[in-house]
Design brief:
The chain has two domains: 76 residues, no CATH class; 39 residues. 69% of the residues lie in helices and 0% in strands. The chain is built from five helices and no strands. Helix 2 packs across helix 4. This is LOB domain-containing protein 9. Keywords: Coiled coil. Pfam families: LOB (PF03195). It comes from Cardamine amara subsp. amara.
Length: 118
């Protein structure tokens, strides 16, 4: 491990020395350890390692981000995980659409009032 760099979340969780050229350090940095530990509970380090090895270089960052987000999702909602986050976002979209419709109706009412006064 580099003296200036903390061990990556992957190596820290496996209790192994993190080499200077650790293949997982760019994807699972020390600052994301809590997210990695959550993901590790879901997938296990062997499966995470296998998924990362099978992914092409261009896809590894996206895969790592997805793995960490899935871990966070299950930490935040232990019953529904990522599905719960999607449901919450869909509900927020619907609430905002309803609010937008309400505002559009008010704008149209005001336009009609203005037109009648001219």
């Amino acid at each position: 491990m580099n003296a200036n760099r903390a061990p990556c979340a992957f190596c820290k969780t496996k209790n192994k020395r993190c080499p200077k050229n650790c293949e997982f350090a760019p994807y699972f940095p020390a600052e994301r350890r809590a997210s990695y530990e959550s993901a590790n509970k879901i997938f296990g380090s062997n499966k995470i390692k296998r998924m990362m090895m099978l992914a092409g270089e261009a896809d590894k960052h996206m895969l790592a981000t997805s793995i960490l987000k899935e871990g966070d999702a299950w930490t935040n909602d232990s019953m529904r995980g990522g599905y719960g986050e999607i449901q919450n976002l869909l509900q927020q979209i619907e609430l905002r659409r309803a609010y937008l419709r309400e505002l559009e109706e008010k704008i149209n009412d005001e336009k009609e009032k203005t037109r009648l006064h001219l």
